[in-house]
Specification:
- The structure is a homodimer.
- Chain A is α/β, with parallel strands linked by helices.
- Chain A has two domains: about 80 residues, Beta Barrel (Barwin-like endoglucanases); about 110 residues, no CATH class.
- Chain A contains five helices and 15 strands.
- In chain A, a hairpin with a 4-residue loop joins strand 4 and strand 5.
- Chain A starts with a helix and ends with a strand.
Amino acid sequence: MDDKLIDLLVDKISEKLNESQSFLVEASGRHVHLSRKDIDALFGEGYQLKLDRYLSQPGQFVSRERLTLVGPKGVLQNVVILGPERADSQVEVSATDALTLGQKVPIRESGNIENTPGITLVNGNRSVTIDKGLIVAQRHVHVAEKDAAKLNVNHGDIVKVKIAGENRSLIFDDVVIRVSEKFATVMHIDYDEANACGFTKGIKGTIVK
Amino acid sequence: MDDKLIDLLVDKISEKLNESQSFLVEASGRHVHLSRKDIDALFGEGYQLKLDRYLSQPGQFVSRERLTLVGPKGVLQNVVILGPERADSQVEVSATDALTLGQKVPIRESGNIENTPGITLVNGNRSVTIDKGLIVAQRHVHVAEKDAAKLNVNHGDIVKVKIAGENRSLIFDDVVIRVSEKFATVMHIDYDEANACGFTKGIKGTIVK
């Protein structure tokens, strides 16, 4: 084979390999997860969140209910509640939202809410003030257990992910890998990050070594 | 020399090299540049913008005057005007701002405003509607001519820049290099990008090959 043919083959093979190692990227807007106790307080004893639409993660859904977040300096209205209910309430906002609320908010992995600030949640004339759980979510890739070997990653790995957005390609470092048999393989970033990488719906990410 | 010593030397030397090849990163908020004609219309014939403070780029300054931007669906108040005046008015916003205004805004290099949308600028009871010039600024590094060789870049190059922000390190691709004897060597990103990379004041960027 001549050199050109070899180059062509290498290009085609690596393109194919990259394709199989890429995954969908989704931009998550601000949202709230609620505990049973906080649903009771905000919507009434035993209230069940109503399904609006399912999300890419199996069983996770956008509910029809909305809440208002009240921070020290500002308010965010019409904030989505995701179901199903969780052990602890958690509020995920962007760094831009944190500025609007007037609250310093740490970047945390979902569920890791020790020593995070609280916030007041309002539904009409009912309200709850949680004493922790307000975070900026660390960018992460949900990896289905069956895909972990193919992507060559383990739960807890910190990786770099390349996103080829229009005019704004970038490589996110500090991306945490979360592996579970309950997950679909999808990367989640917030709206600040989506804006910074030229996000469009259906865009793919690829882990770079 | 033994292997450990060599490794240590390589680490120390590359650290030193990286240091000399790094530059300050600044986050630019939304701002307006105005032509003489538009200053006349918004502030009166022959009006001179008043200096508030100088910026890192020699001669460029934040003025004391502010404007309101009126888009199809929303308004941004108290927007900074940068001086001195330019040949063409130009309004630089973030993708988040574009959403607030309700206007699709392209990512463009400063000055490249053909076929960009216009916007209405308001100062009290005076207003001007520009027919083009509304852009999301492409991330860029201003490079002083004397630093271009050291950084191994030429005007117009598209490079990758690593930013080691807290918990949110990333590598921006599609960064344009602008070389001029009038520039100080500083990288400019917008607030979306600043939020995505864990920006803090004084943070440095490094070109990666």
